[in-house]
Design a protein that fits this description.
Strand content: under 5%
Radius of gyration: 10 Å
Distance between the termini: 30 Å
Shape: rod-shaped
Structural class: mainly alpha
Order of helices and strands: HH
Number of strands: 0
Largest sheet: none
Length: 24
Amino acid sequence: MKKIFTIDIHTHILPKDIPNFNKQ
């Protein structure tokens, strides 16, 4: 469960922290 939580947080922060992700 800890691994899934970390992945969920990373996936949520990645696109939010990286504007380039949203541009693509």
